[in-house]
Amino acid sequence: MGLYDLDRDGLTNALSDYPKYRVNQLIHGIYANFLSPQEISELPSALRQELASREDFQPSLREDTRRVSDRGLTTKYLFSLSDGRQIESVLMYGPKSTTVCISSQAGCAMACKFCATGDLGFSRHLGVGEIVEQVITAAREAKSNGSRLDHVVYMGMGEPLANCGPVIESLHRIIEVMGLSARKVTLSTVGIVPGIKRLAKEELAINLAVSLHAANDDLRSALVPINKTYPIAILMEACAHYLSVKNRRISFEWALMSGVNDSEQDAKELAKLAKTLYPAAHVNLIPLNPTTGAMGKGLLAPSKEKINLFSSMLSELGVNATVRRTRGQEIAAACGQLAGSTPEDSLHSKNL
Ligand code: SAH
After folding, report:
1. Of 206, 214, 207, 6, which Cα lies nearest the Cα of 112?
2. Is the pLDDT of residue 347 over 70?
3. Nearest CA to ligand 1 atom 11
4. Residue 335 a catalytic site member
5. 114 Cβ partners below 8 Å, 6+ apart?
6. What pLDDT score does 342 carry?
7. Out of 130, 141, 335, 344, which one is annotated catalytic?
8. SS3 category, 135
9. Which residues pair with 66 in a beta bridge?
10. Domains of the chain
């Protein structure tokens, strides 16, 4: 258990020998200024020293490496957890906003056919502190670069809704304690229907992104095996329910693969499905990022022309689509490339 595993009550209990305002100072220092307890100058030095040596006040992540690309605009962090397992987060500076993409599990059990994390297999769930600390670390880094972290996407390693308890707690923490706007937080799911239903019950108005990738069950089950458990019709029902109770945007992610899901027929099926929701789902097109597994199966991104054609077919069919700009591909930091220190890191230079 580390520092960011403790919620307000946990911190209050842990500091039961001190007046309550010390807890408030500690929370402010940690969650508003992204300081370690030792760095919070309002706290008396004896307390700072005590916290520096207490086991329950230690961070859970150790930065192993950081790799920078896009001329300094994208940084991928590789962290070791206390048991030696590794996870990654990606910090991205944009013209108008700063975003961190965080992991919810070490590895992933979903085995999507084109995803490097899926190829790793499942290692373990992250605890709430390990999830929250990725956001704090990114916020501290952004601040030191004169920027302000304002967007969080749960799109790193792992399936967030397969680790619902800690993920939901982390959402409450970053929104209610850290003060990030729920509208700027997006959780991406492979489509775990009970998880979507559970999220719908929470007082959290976050954006939901659903990794669709195929709009018929045969193709989707081949690409995204969990579709056999939660087929498209059931998934759409859960999305419609989420929309009706949250009134937040739902988007579909579609990793475009040449000759697999980039035809006119695919665009028609996708548009039809997007329009079963009201308002229609927004489609995020992600030209497939190369991974060892995907290349082994002959899966490749379509040409630029094909990608633009697919996107314009969707808009002609009345569905808004955005082509996601690939960030950090050469440092294996793009969607679906997060796999810790694996061969994905050298894939770009070797094969492209
Ligand atoms: N488990 C969550 C979050 C994972 S990654 C989910 O499935 O949504 C975020 C997005 O990247 C998902 O839509 C995922 O399907 C997609 N993705 C995975 N591998 C990819 C690749 N090689 N190229 C492009 N997108 C990929």
Report:
1. 214
2. no
3. 335
4. yes
5. 223, 255, 257, 288, 291, 293, 294, 297, 299, 336
6. 54
7. 335
8. helix
9. 77
10. 3-56 (1.10.150), 59-345 (3.20.20.70)
Instruction: Please tell me the residue having the least CA distance from ligand 1 atom 1.
Output: 159
Q: Amino acid identity, residue 168?
A: I
- For residue 211, give the ligand 1 atom closest to its CA: 13
Mutate to test the pocket of ligand 1, among 92, 292, 335 (most ligand atoms within 8 A of CB): 335
Total Cβ atoms within 10 A of residue 217: 13
Q: Does the active-site annotation cover 88?
A: yes
> Quick one: which atom of ligand 1 is closest to the CA of 154?
3
**pLDDT tier, 344 (very low <50, low <70, confident <90, very high otherwise):** low
Instruction: Answer whether residue 352 shows pLDDT above 90.
Output: no
Sign of CA dihedral 237, 163, 344, 221: negative
Give me ligand 1 centre to Cα 197, in Å.
Answer: 21
Comparing 36-40, 142-146, 326-330, the range with the smallest average pLDDT is 326-330
* pLDDT tens string 258-269: 999 999 999 999
CA-210 nearest atom, ligand 1: 8
Percentage above 70 pLDDT, the chain: 97
Residues 325, 307: Cα–Cα separation, whole Å:
12
Q: Which residues pair with 71 in a beta bridge?
A: none
pLDDT at 341: 65
Residue tagged active-site, from 88, 130, 133, 141: 88
Instruction: Encode pLDDT of 10-19 as tens digits.
Output: 999 999 999 9
Ligand 1, CB within 6 Å, residue ranges: 112, 114-115, 155, 159, 188-190, 211, 253, 255, 286, 288-289, 291, 294, 335-336
